[in-house]
Amino acid sequence: MSADVIVVGAGLSGLYAAREVLRAGLEPLVLEADDRVGGRILTQQVAPGIDVEIGAQWIGDTHHRMRALAAELGIGTFAQFEEGEATYELLGSPVLRENEFHAAHRHELAALDQALERLDELSGQVPLEAPWDAERAAEWDAVTAARWLDSQQLPPVAERLLEICTVGILAVPMAEVSLLDMLYNLQTCGVGAQLFAESEGGAQTTRFDGGTSRIPQALAESLGDRVLLGQPVMLIERDETSVTVHCRGGLVARGQHVIVALSPTLASRIMYDPPLPGVRDQLTQRMPQASAMKAFLTYDEPFWRADGLSGQLISDIGPSRMSNDTSPADASYGQVLMFLEGEQARTFGRWPEAERREALIAEAVRHFGPRAASPTHYVDGEWSDRPWTRGCYNANMGPGVWTNFGRALTPPVGPIHWASTETATRWSGYMEGALDAAIRAAGEVATQLRR
Ligand SMILES: Cc1cc2nc3c(=O)[nH]c(=O)nc-3n(C[C@H](O)[C@H](O)[C@H](O)COP(=O)(O)OP(=O)(O)OC[C@H]3O[C@@H](n4cnc5c(N)ncnc54)[C@H](O)[C@@H]3O)c2cc1C
């Protein structure tokens, strides 16, 4: 088989890159390992009329590319339910409603706001195209985010909240990322500490009618037989002007360029001939996928709303440290999403499902009352077991990685180009980042082919 541009991976980034390539007047061919498109986007039907988003679920107000794409594909959106009070269970205290919690911890919360302002100020000094060029890059890349948090000497409640919110974004313990990487993560989203909020400016304001999977499915449909499923790419050979891509089943695809739209971890599991430069390989050896899973409790109705609750919990007892109301727009049933992130995913993700379910229901009862004891459905989704993902939400960098190896993240190696959300400079880690990276990679190819 042959095409102008071979795209590896039919996640959002690969599909969008293929579409951009086609729009530039070139022929793409997408090779996808799995038997479905969408990668980290996966809407699953639990029962007729009841869905869960095992993967990506929300976009934010500044996810302009995603908004435009959904509109173009005719996929409607609706606002995340945001009314009512959250519930808090921290540092041995019984469950408190948001207003009680705020009244009890006014001073600690003011200290938290100040810490968020400091984070905003520091992240504003990180150049997105070259984080290693930040004036204090060496200093920030030499310490972990956990060490920075310790150094702030925040009151315990403020420290715990900041840690829970950060792990909620990075999905690994703060000791596993450098301060520079945490600052980069804030800066790439362009909303600073607003990222910790779901309201205006955050990353979780809007959902898609009928589920997020409709987006990759519609993109794949528009590409037709240019997308081949069940084709794991094992080897990419290259010379100055062409690539030959070998799949596990024996399919061989030839092209002038290849866009590898996989997370760095999975991109590094392909063999390259000749081998990639050492610095690129050293980088991908150091960009592990994080640890997150989502667990959904579905009920006949969102009963917590009648009690003035938002369905959002914050807990340091767990198993879940945060939750969200993921009921459908018409509230025809109720649904709570319990996040398991970082150590919570690693610990509780390995429990037998029945025990995990029981522990999460017990937690929901503590926060939302006895009606939470009887969900109609329980579903959870583990991502590190999935051979073509191996962890989520995205990759992180520990100390020393940005400054020593970060320069190798996006530049092409001859005719090999890198997409995937991890290579974005705007909203890296999110669906918006997957589009950002796709546009860059497809642009590189089109420019080189025009020459
Ligand atoms: C649980 C979860 C919740 C999330 N929540 C949100 C959210 O609410 N909002 C948001 O914006 N983002 C969210 N994200 C992140 C978002 O899903 C990703 O940023 C985005 O989907 C990444 O797209 P991608 O194309 O870069 O990578 P992927 O989706 O990982 O696509 C890579 C593709 O390559 C395929 N592949 C892998 N190896 C090979 C190979 N050797 N050969 C061929 N194909 C291969 C994979 O099967 C996959 O289809 C979430 C992710 C997860 C997992």
TrEMBL record:
Pfam family, one: Amino_oxidase
The keyword rRNA-binding belongs to this UniProt entry's keyword annotation: no
Keywords from the named record: Oxidoreductase
Domain Amine oxidase: 12-445
S-adenosyl-L-methionine among keywords: no
Signal peptide positions on this chain: none
Alphabetical list of SUPFAM superfamilies matching this protein: FAD-linked reductases, C-terminal domain, FAD/NAD(P)-binding domain
Superkingdom, taxonomy of origin: Bacteria
Required cofactor names: FAD
Similarity field: Belongs to the flavin monoamine oxidase family.
Name assigned to this protein: Flavin monoamine oxidase family protein
Organism phylogeny: Bacteria, Bacillati, Actinomycetota, Actinomycetes, Micrococcales
